[in-house]
Amino acid sequence: ELKVEQNPLFLSMQEGKNYTIYCNYSTTSDRLYWYRQDPGKSLESLFVLLSNGAVKQEGRLMASLDTKARLSTLHITAAVHDLSATYFCAVKTSGSRLTFGEGTQLTVNP
Amino acid sequence: EAQVTQNPRYLITVTGKKLTVTCSQNMNHEYMSWYRQDPGLGLRQIYYSMNVEVTDKGDVPEGYKVSRKEKRNFPLILESPSPNQTSLYFCASSLSVQGNEKLFFGSGTQLSVL
User: Which pLDDT value is given to residue A53?
Assistant: First the structure.
């Protein structure tokens, strides 16, 4: 059974600081996704990572994928309050199943 | 406007009373899927569909049914709801899951089973 684990589950950080969210998964996959969810809202797709070594960046967020280590990271640079949200990673497995991590609740304080 | 539309937004029902949550997309997407979100558990996939008449189980399919008779619609059916199906449900679609296509999510359906 595939396990997808995010670390940390809760993150409180100050504006202007950098931090990284980790997503570990337990079985081979060729596709990893990152999503953002604001409180009381739906999910918004951030990144799709397709291959080992893939790196994608948008604004202050950068995602990377290491398929050999079964690890993806979401790096936040110079955080701002607008980035406060819950971030999920999800892994595509057999067929077209998607398995999500528990989510990382990020709070950026002034 | 490209979107995934779920209805209803909120639903309160009683144990055993059959219900259907509708999901429709206007983007000609092949892939559609249903998820439930529970505190501390993230999202768990219930069912997914690769195309018309092609459906498959996700991680938590027990107690749910789906159908995909048309490309745009993917309803979620609870034949005999139970309180442990109280949850926030999301429908999502994408062009496919074979490339780098992103998933588009509906607004969610908050279901309470009493």
Answer: 82
